[in-house]
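This part of the workshop introduces the protein records we will be handling. The structure tokens are whole numbers drawn from a learned vocabulary of backbone shapes. The record below serves as our worked example for the rest of this section.

===
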Amino acid sequence: MRNSPFPRMADWGNDLGERVESWRDVSISQVPDHTYLKPDLLPEYSNLLIGVGPNVEASMWTTLLAYSTASGRALSPFPGHPPISTLVVSRASTLQRMFQQLKLVHAKDTNDEYRDLAEKNLFFLRGADYVRSPGYLYSPTALGAIIEQMPPSCRLVVFLDGEFALTPSKTDKTADQRSFHILIENLNRQGIATMIFHRVGRGGAEPLLDLILPDGLNYYINLTASPSAPTEYGTGFNVFRQKTSTFDVGPSSFYFWHLIVDQELRFGWEIFNQSAESAKKLELFERREKVKQLLEAGIQQREIAKVLEVDAATVCRDVSRLKLKKPPATSTDQGWEDIPE
């Protein structure tokens, strides 16, 4: 990765062409059409890094995304599209949970056409030794095996557990970040996009783009904890995403939730209410999260008050409130129920 945003002199011929061109020439010959695999979410032959933040359980959304890509089903707020042949790569334990959740998703979808498309177009790479070790996405052996077993019609590869697959073992001397870069570049050249789920810290997904993905068509999404998430029978989180173009009409931030009641899946999404009241609730939630973390670290309440620069009584109320259960979230947009069949 270059330190300067400008190409080196030796690269000018490759990066800029070998002549000076007007904007008219460039716009006619070099600006590509913006075509999507999933509209407003994933352009063709591009890479989407999804940073899963602390205290976020995103496995159901992951499952719904995989199902919708393979079937072409709309997953609000993103519209439907032609079905995409999708390969899911992960260690066995993560896939096992996806299989359990796919049963719920499959049962919820009453449209036989979508169900049939999902069955035909969703593939899994499982049971292989090379995806059982940390850092397998840096191993030339593992990457070569993934390429060899790629379905012929594959247009999208989903890596479910990036934090495991991209963290080299201390004993593995063969791990090399460049191998993963080469894989991604080769996939993109063949018209194959990637979607990488990676558990991250408070910085989110964006800083990782330059570290684990090559230059090119790369986008990011950050998933963060939500104060309104249901806790007993489901979960929810906030979604913050980078726009894929100036013509991207989908929301750049929204809240997703799901519930499982009597083995029946319910899910939906809603646009953030940007009112002052919502901002106050978010500030309150963030403070209580800090109180919770400091308590778990063994710090006394009086010391927590000093660290957060609030009254001791405020911390006392926060501690009491943390012991109460949060009510489940509601949404006017129920997944799939408002889509005509």
